[in-house]
Amino acid sequence: MKKIFTLLLVVLVAFTSCKDKKKETQEIKAETAEKFIVKPEGTSVKWTAYKTTEKVPVGGEFKILKFDNKEGATPQEALNGLTFSIPVSSLFTKDASRDEKLKSFFFGVMLDTELIKGTIKFANNQYMATLTMNGVTNDLPLEFSIADERRVTLTGTMQLKDWNALEAVESINKACFDLHKGADGVSKTWEDVAIEVNTYLRKN
Hints:
This protein has helices at about 1-30, 75-80, 95-105, 165-175; strands spanning about 35-40, 45-50, 55-60, 70, 80-85, 90, 115-125, 125-135, 135-145, 150-160, 190-200, 200-204. By secondary structure, the chain is an alpha+beta fold.
């Protein structure tokens, strides 16, 4: 009987030890698992606005994007919940005169013109950027694509009326009236703006 008890005790100790080692191994794997990291220096925000009846594109970007580094086990997890802010002063179109007009006559007539703020969300296989601009918060649906596991592109189209920004559209069109004329002599600034976010995810 004593031998049986001793044998059971040895088996129990061995089983417990094995279980503890398995738990430790799982914890180590979880700690050392490769993660995707989103960093502001690896991220760009570009936009395309349109002028004239022919809808001629005018491209630009924001040179500064502020957010804390965020990581996740997948690209989707790394991007989900990422909160950011964009200084309007960092607007850049390679044309200093155009930059100043956009800052003064477009963003300058809005409310809270210093920053555009937002949060990227991923739910039900759909990306969304909840953007705050002109004192209005609204959702911008985004299309997601990824190349080489780490190069992520998010694209969407802002309808400026959804941010109560049509007054700003009229203001910039008035300031650039002749520049926004096409072959038909009509001056027009379009209400939709294409957005493209590119980020290269780091791995730890």
